[in-house]
Design brief:
The complex is a heterodimer.
Chain A lengths: L7 E10 L2 E11 L4 E5 L6 H8 L7 E6 L14 E4 L11 H12 L4 H9 L15 H13 L5 E5 L7 H16 L3 E6 L2 H4 L5 E6 L2 E7 H7 L2 E7 L2 H10 L5 E3 L5 E4 L3 H11 L3 E8 L2 H10 L57 H5 L48
Parallel strand pairs in A: 3-7, 3-8, 5-6, 6-7
Antiparallel strand pairs in A: 1-2, 1-4, 8-9, 10-12, 10-13, 11-12
Helix pairs in contact in A: 2-3, 3-4, 8-9
Chain B lengths: L1 H12 L3 H33 L2 H5 L10 H11 L1 H17 L1 H7 L4 H34 L8 H29 L2 H26 L10 H26 L6 H14 L8 H25 L4
Helix pairs in contact in B: 1-7, 2-4, 2-5, 2-7, 4-7, 4-8, 4-10, 5-6, 5-7, 5-8, 5-9, 7-8, 8-9, 8-10, 8-12, 10-11, 10-12
Bound molecules: adenosine-5'-diphosphate and magnesium ion (MG).
Chain lengths: ~400, ~300
């Protein structure tokens, strides 16, 4: 009935809600064995896209397939794709276990699967509590348990980190990577790049319902570029001289300053000297990934429809400049993965056996990016996920940033 | 389909609604049947004591007046299975559990089909429970002389049970069509308890006693339950009159209209015709609710 590939294909997907063009001509593909991030600011059309993929919203045009089939062509869809959707509902007076058993029955899974999944997501002790009394984070976990009930090949998650505690976020990261490494497919949406940056291999960035970037995260990293802000005596003269020197990506800024992309400080200095324009100030700004995301989605630097930002200088970018657009993201030197090593992961348990083998071999994840500096190699926890290498490794970075602060 | 029906049963049994509606349904059916049968008994006793019937030679106790209590009690208690049905899909849409429900089913139509089967069974359960309660109330309130024969009793209860099933499905269709529990409940309750009955009275008056009311959803449902009771009484009266030349044919027809009125089904057709008309209404709402959900965007 389906080709079993685990591939998600989104083709020219378009959705209009009356006057609102929620999604416009979106195309991308998600391969099994990888985690794809689906990023965009609030209202960009992420939820609408995922719901079209899952047959909950009828596209205005285009289509989306899982395993080569439209959702409604899947015979027992929950055995193929599991979904964690925003605002996923629970009956407030139904217990977590009963909720899962309802859907066990619907998809033909044995009842004990409900308790297994509750234990997996750390809700084992809340099995007999009503979902109405759950915190947002607990509801997210219950939604994940529901999604995993059918042991699906494809997992689709819409902002699953919302409301999760740091421990939960760290666990989710590990889980998703292992899930993908076992040859399955993960598509995860977020409005925060930093939230999923450590997890994803491939990224689709959308804004106003249109694709801004689609490709490997590494490519995006490589494409990031610096811009130079100069304060010339005569902006017009400098811009003319720069353009003559084939440096055309020049943007005027307030107070007579000029932002130049695609040229080094030396090049600009040389051009200015030749043109006889005095420079009162030169400042180089390096974009980090988050800024790049911000640029791509704010429409300020990239006109809608632009596929890729202009190629950067191709420098390796170890040194991230100080973030300019402060959004409270952690500096990348302290990757949130540190939390894997934090204490006992009391709530979480062994994954079902099916997921383990892949995880063991996970040394180099598909995307080809190694563990961040100072991290232990990710691939070798003793038995699947459980507590990652906290035995060998103590706290790596003592300081905690805001987002992940507040030890659980 | 079996899997989805089992899931629907679990949904119902893991929440309180089914018994939260069954309890008042039982209380209302017992109370209503008791009250009506006591009332009917009082009147019948008064009539029996009067000189009026002495001239005709009719024995009031030959008539099973308490079928009116049975039918009235079951008719009023159908409100509860109707509410139960109305919430079947509407509350899933409202609580957004419909997302997971659709994600775990092979198609939306299969979900609606499984719900239809499940709620038919639950409509039957409500019907049987309400029938028992109405019978109990009738026995408690009625003079034993006025109780119907076993066969008539059974026929009235059967028609009430069928009415419960059909009201459940009609409620489900309306809920599926509107997608909002509040909207569906307000519409159904206002219609079934006010607009329907009052409108039918007016229609009945304006059209000078035509069968038009019997074509309305509420009118046909009333016919389903009420016509049976009035047929029982009418049959008895004809039998009595057969031995008795004093009453004219016109009087018998007046009696028929009056007794249909008393049974709460003015202008209604007979049991089977009413039942088919009401089944038609149920299918209209159910199918349009199904089609509506086939296309609904779940956002
Ligand atoms: N049911 C709906 N009716 C009308 N507009 C909608 C509906 N759902 C989403 N939208 C609009 O579509 C756009 C994309 O929304 P959404 O897909 O939820 O974005 P995201 O998940 O990226 O935050 C928004 O402008 C939103 O207001
Ligand atoms: Mg969203």
């Amino acid at each position: 009935m389906h080709d079993g590939s685990g591939r998600i294909v989104v083709q020219n997907l378009t959705k209009n809600f009356g006057q609102v063009a929620a999604v416009q001509n979106l195309s991308f593909q998600v391969e099994p064995g990888s985690v794809t991030g689906f990023l965009g600011p609030n209202g960009a059309g992420k939820t609408t896209t995922l719901r079209m993929l899952l047959g909950l919203v009828t596209p205005t045009a285009g289509h989306a397939t899982i395993n080569g089939q439209l959702f409604h062509q899947l015979e027992n869809p929950a055995r193929v794709v599991g979904a964690v959707l925003e605002a996923q509902g629970f009956h407030p007076s139904r217990t977590a276990r009963d909720h899962l058993r309802v859907y066990c029955a619907a998809m033909g899974m044995p009842d004990q699967r409900a308790d297994e999944m509750l234990n997996l997501v750390g809700l084992g002790s809340a099995a007999t509590r009503s979902a109405g009394g759950f915190s947002l984070g607990m509801k997210q976990r219950l939604a994940l348990a529901t999604a995993l009930l059918g042991d699906p090949q494809v997992l689709v998650l819409d902002e699953p980190a919302n409301g999760l505690d740091p421990e939960g976020i760290a666990w989710l990261r590990t889980f998703l990577k292992a899930f993908a490494a076992s040859g399955r497919t993960v598509l995860i949406s977020s409005h925060l790049l930093a939230e999923v940056e450590q997890t994803i291999d491939q990224v689709v960035i959308i804004s106003h319902g249109q694709t801004m970037y689609y490709g490997q995260l590494d490519e995006l990293r490589r494409s990031q570029q610096s811009r130079v802000i100069v304060q010339p005596a005569d902006p017009n003269k400098l811009v003319a001289a720069l353009q003559e020197a084939q440096i055309t990506n020049v943007t005027p800024m307030p107070e007579g300053r000029v932002a130049v992309v695609g040229a080094t400080v030396q090049q600009i200095g040389d051009v200015a000297a030749r043109a006889g324009v005095a420079l009162y100030g030169v400042q180089e700004e390096k974009a980090d990934l988050e800024q790049l995301f911000f640029r791509l989605t704010s429409g300020q630097y990239a006109a809608p429809g632009t596929q890729l930002p202009p190629p950067g200088q191709g420098q390796p970018q170890q040194g991230y400049a100080q973030p300019v657009g402060q959004q409270g993201y952690p500096p990348n030197q302290a990757p949130p993965q540190q939390f894997q090593q934090q204490g006992q992961q009391s709530g979480y348990h062994q994954p079902p056996p099916g997921y383990q083998p892949g995880y063991q071999q996970q040394g180099t994840p598909p995307g080809g990016w190694g563990p961040p500096p100072g991290q232990p190699p990710t691939g070798t926890p003793p038995g699947g996920w459980g507590p990652p290498p906290q035995q060998q490794q103590q706290y790596q970075a003592p300081q905690q940033d805001q987002q992940h602060g507040g030890n659980a | 389909m079996g899997r989805l029906i089992s899931a629907e049963f679990r949904k119902i049994l893991t929440t309180r609604l089914w018994w939260a509606l069954a309890i008042p349904a039982v209380l209302l059916a017992v109370g209503w049947a008791w009250g009506v049968s006591a009332f009917v008994t009082d009147i019948a006793d008064d009539v029996a004591d009067s000189d009026l019937l002495a001239t005709t030679g009719i024995e009031v106790s030959d008539m099973s007046w308490s079928v009116l209590a049975l039918t009235r009690a079951m008719n009023i208690a159908t409100i509860f299975p109707m509410v139960f049905g109305a919430l079947a899909l509407a509350s899933e849409i409202n609580r957004k559990t419909i997302t997971t429900t659709f994600l775990t089913a092979s198609s939306r139509a299969s979900v609606l089909g499984a719900k239809a089967i499940t709620y038919t069974i639950w409509g039957l359960v409500y019907g049987v429970v309400v029938a028992g309660a109405a019978s109990l109330g009738t026995v408690l309130g009625s003079n034993p002389d006025y109780l119907p024969e076993g066969g008539d009793w059974f026929l009235v209860l059967m028609s009430g049970i069928i009415a419960c099933v059909l009201w459940t499905l009609l409620g489900m269709g309306v809920g599926a069509l509107l997608g909002s529990p509040v909207g569906a409940l307000v519409l159904l309750l206002v219609y079934a308890s006010f607009v329907g009955p009052v409108g039918e009275l007016i229609l009945f008056g304006v059209t000078e006693g035509s069968h038009l009311t019997g074509w309305m959803p509420n009118g046909s449902a009333n016919g389903l339950t009420g016509a049976t009771a009035s047929e029982v009484l009418f049959g008895q009266v004809q039998e009595i009159v057969g031995n008795n030349a004093v009453l004219a044919q016109a009087d018998i027809e007046d009696f028929d209209i009056g007794v249909r009125f008393a049974a709460g089904a003015p202008g209604a057709y007979s049991l089977w015709v009413s039942g088919l008309i009401f089944l038609g209404w149920t299918m209209i709402f159910f199918v349009s609710g199904l089609l509506r959900n086939q296309r609904r965007d779940i956002t």
